[in-house]
Amino acid sequence: MKNYLPLFFIIFLCFEAYAQNKYFSRDGKISFYSKAPVEDIEAHHNQVSSIINMENGDIVFSMLIKGFQFEKALMQEHFNENYLESEKYPKSVFEGRITNFNDLDLSKDGEYDLKITGQLTIHGVTKEYSTDAKLKRTGDKLQGTCTFKVKVADHKIKIPSTVVDNIAEVVDVNVDIVYQPYKK
């Protein structure tokens, strides 16, 4: 048993060091905007979870679809019941990586241009996305922002012909996440 104690202690310290190089958020913000001929639709979500691994640039986002808030209750109801089917597909997840991670020194305060690529799952359909993003480091806080476009049909979201002029084929998505160091 004595021989295993040093090994256990080293593994524990490595895990702690690894965890200290992660940053997380539970209250990230994602919004989307649909500009269409009949009416514009905008929704906001303020409870997005995300984690960045500062050892390798891995990044994950997760959110419950029902967390999107709309100006009109009827829009929110249609979004959840008819389009995103949030009872059947309750979550959206992005798993990716900062592809230019090795070219950056994110340990210093400043603003950084990131390239992110990964798999986005919406409505049970996973598709690869690549986008540019900004990361601002101030002390031990990180703020990540980006904008990208999602083509509704790519995720098999069906829009009934009666309202096809109400919803854009391509939706603008905005991300704004403030990360804190991960602590157990």
**How are the strands ordered across the major sheet?**
1-2-3-5-6-7-8-9
Tell me the major beta sheet: 8 strands, antiparallel, barrel
Shape: elongated
Cα-to-Cα separation, first versus last residue: 27 Å
**What is the CATH homologous superfamily assignment?**
Lipid/polyisoprenoid-binding, YceI-like
Helix content, binned percent: 10-25%
Secondary structure category:
alpha+beta
The overall number of domains is 1
**CATH topology title:** Lipocalin
Uncertain segments are: 3-18
CATH class: Mainly Beta
* Radius of gyration over C-alpha positions, nearest whole angstrom: 19 Å
Features:
Lipocalin, 2 helices, 184 residues, disordered N terminus, single chain, 9 strands, elongated, alpha+beta
Description:
This protein is α+β, with helices and mostly antiparallel strands and about 180 residues long. The protein has helices at about 5-20, 75-85, and strands spanning about 20-35, 40-55, 60-65, 70, 90-100, 110-120, 125-140, 140-150, 170-180. The chain has a single domain (about 25-180), classed as Lipid/polyisoprenoid-binding, YceI-like (Lipocalin, Beta Barrel), CATH 2.40.128. It is built from 2 helices and 9 strands. The chain starts with a helix and ends with a strand.
